[in-house]
Amino acid sequence: MRPWTEDQIERVAPDAKSLVAAGKLAGRWRDSGHHDSALWGRCAGSGATVYQTVVDLSGPAYRCSCPSRKIPCKHALSLLLRWSKGEVASVAEAADYATSWIDERAARAARAVVPRVRTPSATTAQQRRARVGAGLDELDQWLADQVRTGLAQNDHSFSAFDAIAARMVDAQAPNLASALRRLPTVIATRPDWPDIVLGEYAWMHLLITAHRQRDAAAPALCASIDSHIGYPTPVETVRAEPAVRDHWMVVGLQITMQERLYTRRTGLYGRVSGRWAVIIDHSFGSADFPTQPAALGHVIDAQLHFYPSAAPLRALWGTHYGTAETFTAIHTATNRPATIATALAEHAAALGADPWLRTWPVLLAEVVPTCTDQGWYVTDPGGEALPIRPTEQPWSLLSVSGGHPVTVVGEWTAEGLSPVSVFAEGELIDLARNDSSRGAGSPAPTSGARNRELTSVALLGTARRAPDLATMAPIAAAAAAQLSTDPALRLLESVALDDLFLRGGITPVPACTPEPAASDPRQRLPRPAATRLAGMLGFDHSGLRFLNEWLAAAAVHDYRAPDDLCDLLLDNAEIHTSQREPLLRLAGVRGAWLASQHPVWQSSTQAEPCTDTWQFGRPPQRRNWLGELRRRDPEAARTRLTEAWPKESGPAKAELLAVLTDGLTLADEPLLEIALDDRRPDVRRTAVGLLARLPDSAFAQRMCARAHAWLHIDHRPPHTHMGVALPATVDAAARRDGITGREFAYNWDGAPDVTAKHLRQLVAATPLTHWAQALGTAAAAAKVVITDRFRGPVFDGWLDAALAHRDPEWARVLFAAGVPTDVALLRRRELFALLPMTERVEHLLHLDSTWISELEALLPAMGHPWPEPLAQHVLVLLVEQARSAARSGANLPRSLLTTAATHLPVATAGTLSAAARRCDDPDWESAFDQLANDLIYRSKMLEELQ
């Protein structure tokens, strides 16, 4: 047997954490071996404990003496990883403990081949049938009353439907109870609820009528009737059915959850027979399903036992022959081409055999997904198309196709096609990876598939109006005329006939395909790296905090993302503007083509700004458009904003003005001066902040003049003194220039200090060159003598100016001088980030374990990755903290640990694992383990990009 690949091992792992833990066990194995389908070994645990681990590769199945409840556990995964790397030798005979367990499994399987058939007594079966029949009679009467009274007049509350559903539970008809309990939600959320509710009532009435006559029906149809009502089908009855052997391709895998019950539906397609099959597994409380022999995109030679049915679909696994292998092409039976016509014919045949079917699998080869103003379609080479369900937005399908033909696996429903997976370029791609609602079994009919006359009569009630059967298709109308004489029942039967006629006789519609996307010659991102990127950007956001590091490492190789990730990349590029450029670069040519089909994505991906976006777009789109134009042509962006300024209003106005920050020059001064007179405070504040960054502007000259008039500098040796003489009330011109005192809070003698507020705004808006001329160097300014009342506002103003101008000299002085107010304390990290790297490292290396809070505050300003001396210093401090915690019970420095996980060199993972083993405090041991796992995650993340 060939060793498994790492990809196969990842698929059987219960979670990513178990894989990471398995990687740390590489050096703990002894006495491992491989023989035939047995893989075994002994792994050293904590202390003197040694765990015996066995893997039966024919299952696969796993056994380990460790206490873990995960299947497979980390020891089994580690053993598989060693085997895949060729580190487990093949021997002539398996270990005793491996042989005994595998033989025991084989004996149990042999006993299960001939199960004990539990045949219920005839009396019990008759009693259940009578109970179900009595309940169905009550339901049929209830349905007739609902239609007779009129849907518009019925009680649509949850309690009304729950009452009749509870009666169905008592009558042992659970599937009908579930169908009834779904309807209140439909009524509350769907505008076409009358069509859906009427269709469900007709579906139930048809099933009730069939149950009354089941004794006269064929056995296969009886099985379908019982299945739709909810009669249980014993497993031994299914396994008694003739086995169907084929090479079964796993073409669909959907997991749904309802009321803590997880359901996994595995879709199979027989390579030789062309038959469809569905394996359904359930798990309560968690998604811990039994291991299946083949994963999505794999084919296995096996037998299936189909549940008895008029249209057999659900099945159980039977005997397996060999192991699963990846398939690189979907082969169809020679007499069953994968065309739209064949798919519709198969659906019509299945619906004719079992009229209660809601869905049927379809395989469509060489079709092109298309997004039109009328909805989504898949179109074949002849121009015939099938609609996609209106509730679907299959941008992943369109992304994979790129306008080129692909093979689509899906489910055909009354609402249209529901895509499940797509096969392109030799790879099967799961379209339901982020769609938790798929496969929930919602009611099938739609407003477009219903005869409007029948719905109108049902809303009004048959007691007031009879349906006009002439509006139905002639064949259906002729059959309806021979039905029940009760008007209410006749309406339900007419609806059932009309639905079946329309669903079974669906014909394709003409549709045009889009111009296909051009090719992207760049190397494609390796699939393991693509899978990790999807996890970072998807709903679970696993590893999202490492995304910036991942993007930087991927940029070196200039990869293009797999086509199926382009929609995810575009979604995140729209949301995360700071990461937009690398995400769009990954999406590449296919991403640009896909964005052209989606109005929301267009504004963030257009090569040239579109005027329509500026005129008619939403505020975020207009801001992004102006920002892109500013980067390309600053003068054109300024002109656009100047022309639109008199008509602009609302909170987005300040954001538009802030776009001028990029490439700010004196040419922007006229518009900023106009903005100083705006009625919105946020616009005026933005204008003041931008003008303060222009030292040669008229605004800066006005501020210098005020500083000269209001602040007196006295160079009296040995110190320089600063006197403050601000007016009690500033004039209108000063208020226009932003000296309002509204943004800050200072107090003196227990009362608000308005003068201090004005002083800070004055100092912050005055160019630093003024202070250099008045006081000398930044170091000299820090030594100026100021009264205690005004020292804080002056230093806060200098801090604001230093950050606005990104001046490293002033940042160094102010950081060393300390900060006198809590407001400035929050900005020390920003000052620290302006210092040269060597100075930052030197400062942090002088901080010992008593300065942990200072370290936590400043480390985020160190960039990525940390220099080696700093990383080692942080590790030493963490170990010291762990030892101290064992004695004093100090709390964990969680902020420091989180920052370290992102910035420590990945090579330190081994050091942290060793530190965890030496910890006496369980919290610190867990923290070191988690930190080591994060570093291993990053290490593997970077390896996958090579």
Q: Can you describe this structure?
A:
This protein is of the alpha+beta class and 946 residues long. The protein has seven domains: 6-111, no CATH class; 233-326; 340-427, OB fold (Dihydrolipoamide Acetyltransferase, E2P) (Beta Barrel); 527-606, no CATH class; 608-678; 692-833, no CATH class; 837-943. Helices cover 49% and strands 15% of the residues. A seven-stranded antiparallel β-sheet has the order 15-14-13-10-11-12-16. The protein has a five-stranded antiparallel β-sheet with strand order 7-6-5-8-9. Strand 13 (406-413) and strand 14 (416-424) form a beta hairpin. Helix 5 (122-149) packs across helix 15 (487-504), helix 7 (174-189) packs antiparallel against helix 8 (193-212) and helix 39 packs parallel to helix 41 (922-943). The longest helix has 28 residues, at 122-149. The two termini are 29 Å apart. 38% of the residues are buried.
